[in-house]
Amino acid sequence: QVSSEMTIIPSADRSDGTEPLMGPSQAETSWILPLRVHWKGLNPKEIARRSRNRWLDAFVVPLFGLWYLTQAASVVAPGAAVSEPAAAAVRPLMLVVRALLAAVAAYILIVHAYAFPAPIEAQEAFAVQSKLGRWVYLTRHCLALQAWHQMFSLFSIVSPLLTALTHGMCVWISALGCFVTIQYFVLVVPSALMKEECERWRNRGVQFQEVGVLVHITGLPVAVLDLLFAKSAAEMEQALSMSRTIALTILYSLVYLGIIVANHQVTRTWPYGFMNDFGTNAGKWAVFILKQVCILQLLAFLSWLIVWFRTR
User: Fold this and answer.
1) What is the DSSP string of 69-104?
2) What is the distance between the alpha carbons of residues 56 and 63, in angstroms, rounded to a whole number?
3) Which terminus of the chain has a smaller tally of CB atoms within 10 A, N or C?
4) According to the model, what pLDDT value does residue 192 have?
5) What are the backbone dihedrals phi and psi of residue 272, each rounded to the nearest 5 degrees, phi first?
6) Cβ neighbour number for residue 54 with a 10 Å cutoff
7) What's the rounded Cα separation, in Å, for the pair 297 and 305?
8) Helix (H, G, I), strand (E, B) or coil at 28
């Protein structure tokens, strides 16, 4: 499943047929990342789109904090409460791990917002992102929710309520983090389209492949380390509701489908190229949604096994 953010349009880079700026000297590093990620060949329209997307991120990221808390309130086990003051329950090692995971997750989200190569007009991604920016991609949702999960987990040292909410959300957020890493390296990286796209950006001097790996590689290890070392086994057992977590995987899949359908109605473009083959075939869409739900539920189950072994 290759997103249109990584999909090639096999034609000239510019609608006027002009040759693009090529070579390492035509790309710049980012203030947040020592990789060449900003291509100097962007035209004014593409630069404006990049700026708009960054402003949109600055607005939506805080909203996703509220979205996280809304999900947490719905998924935490009924009557879950922390048996002792939040600060007293956190061991020094646990606090260090929480701080490190929060820093990593927040950094990756910032990299995705400020250092991921901006799309050019020849890519479908340019049209896809015209309204919702990169929030049309499930990867952005996963990265943002994982970042807020780690931040709230760190802050929960002074809040019993946040302790219950973050422990209740740990399996769902783990499933999302694992989803980002596994889908990318199993399905995206080996694809011919991705290899061509990386080569095209490399010719422009942009380290597209390297920043793509960085953005997607941390989801799984952050998720596993969160379950193993950043959460209390007793509190996970008390706050976690697998029935509600499973229900959330279904609900979120349907919510995300609604987002991309609404975006398609406006932009006439799907965020993932393979969706073009679905058309209006309800059966194909049903199979797609079922697969996504099953994958998320499988990852949630595997995450729950970690919790189960820790509580035995």
Assistant:
1) HHHHHHHSPTT---SS-TGGG--HHHHHHHHHHHHH
2) 11
3) C
4) 87
5) -125, 125
6) 14
7) 12
8) strand
Cβ pair 300, 175 in contact under 8 A? yes
Among 14-28, 74-88, 152-166, 203-217, name the one with the lowest average pLDDT.
14-28
Dig out the tokens for 55 from the structure.
Answer: 């402003």
Element (H, E) at 14: none
CA gap 35, 28 in Å, rounded: 8
> Distance between CA 171 and CA 241 in Å, rounded?
9
User: What backbone torsions phi and psi does residue 36 show, to the nearest 5 degrees?
Assistant: -80, 105
Half-sphere exposure of 3 (CA within 13 A, CB side): 20
Cα angle for residues 195, 201, 202 (degrees, 5° grid): 85
Residue keyed to tokens 């950006």: 201
- Token pair 């990852």 in the structure block, residue: 299
**CA separation, residue 192 to residues 57, 162, 214 (Å):** 30, 44, 20
Query: What is the widest separation between alpha-carbon atoms in the chain?
Result: 67
What's the angle, vertex CA 152, arms to CA 306 and CA 229, rounded to 5? Answer: 30
How many other CB atoms are there within 10 angstroms of residue 17's CB atom?
A: 8
DSSP 188: I
What torsion, rounded to 10 degrees, do the Cα atoms 1, 122, 264, 266 define? 160
Average pLDDT over residues 284-305: 94
pTM for the structure as a whole: 0.91
* Token code pair at residue 153: 């987990």
